[in-house]
Amino acid sequence: MQDAEIRQLPELVGQEVRVRGWLFNKRSSGKLQFLIVRDGTGFLQAVVFKPEVPQKVWEDAEKLGQESSLWVVGTVREDKRAPGGVELTVKELEIYQLCQDYPITPKEHGVAFLMDNRHLWLRSRRQHAIMRVRNELCFAIREFFYKRGFVLIDSPILTPAACEGTSTLFQTDYFGEKAYLSQSGQLYLEPAAAAHGKVYCFGPTFRAEKSKTRRHLMEFWMVEPEVAWMRFPELLDLAEEFVSELVARVLDRCQEELKRLERDTSKLEPATRRPYPRIDYADAIAKLQAKGFSVQFGDDFGGDEETALADESGKPVMITRYPAHIKAFYMEPDPQDPTRALAVDMIAPEGYGEIIGGSERISSYELLEQRIREHNLPREAFEWYLDIRRYGAFPHSGFGMGIERVVAWLCGLDHVRETIPYPRMLYRLYP
Length: 431
Known about the structure:
By secondary structure, the protein is of the alpha+beta class. It folds into two domains: 2-97, CATH 2.40.50.140; 118-418, BirA Bifunctional Protein, domain 2, CATH 3.30.930.10. It contains twelve helices and 19 strands. The protein has an eight-stranded mixed β-sheet, sandwiched between helices. The model has no long low-confidence stretch (mean pLDDT 95). GO terms for molecular function: asparagine-tRNA ligase activity; ATP binding; nucleic acid binding.
């Protein structure tokens, strides 16, 4: 007998194994009990046949409650109808902890109840599938950059200044000084790009944005590459290559999870094919006005406008060259029209909104100094950032991608609260 994970069982047909896990569900029929056991790697039907097991094994199986922890010993048998294509003929069963009155039952529960019990809700089939997709996406991101020679740089979470303005910062005391939870690792990546050429960071970011929309969290994870000597057109190519490869990877490796989520994968397949539509901001305004939107040049786009722009092709759409005044202070002006920035937002289809925001960065010391002044930012907090232009200035570009919105899009979810293990929202800090 050997210990085995459920995911390994199709390769162990005919062998005797021990599986450790939790009772997900059960049903009985006369002298048969069908135990659905989960161990984190999959779900297994374990069959207890009364005439072939000791009386205690039968009685223990009868009294098991949902989410009781246990282990079962038996022979792996092929059964195409069972989860994973195999089932276990049980010989032994031992209860580690008998569980009764588990709060989350197969019946319907309200969102508030499920969120209050998020620590338990994570065990459900749906949440299990979502976290598996997230896991695959995160691994694919790291592999994408590793294969291309990027160096991982861990940017600090506690920072002395804002990256994109102070209105959405979480402030904290840092031994008598003001400190803030990071909105982005980008500013700290730019010096690292001067050291390594191609770098990225991947970690939690925080926005104190008082929003209750289905797209917003107070704490989320973001991946941000930064590349020395990269100009704006190359940045667009990198973002497009990045997203198309990630979508293809998830479609290939998460088929079972997407099926469990009832995701219509035909709606994702166009995103695996390049190129993506690229629309100048001015043209996007004209398109929206033609569709009856009241948006004017100089306005930022809301959710309805983003959806209208992205749903024409079924692919993500890249909106470029926004007015500089609605973008961050560090973005390089368009040389053809300095009132606009060399900036891009990638909008996912099906109403999932912006998943990437990026730009070429200002490389001129004088211009960056001017922008810091114009945005009323504290000069002393950005002296180190100005040093990047003071000592060996170079053109460089980068973008940020929020993981949760991408997971929501890939899984076809209505709200980002299910895309992260413990969501932090406007009125939720528990559990």
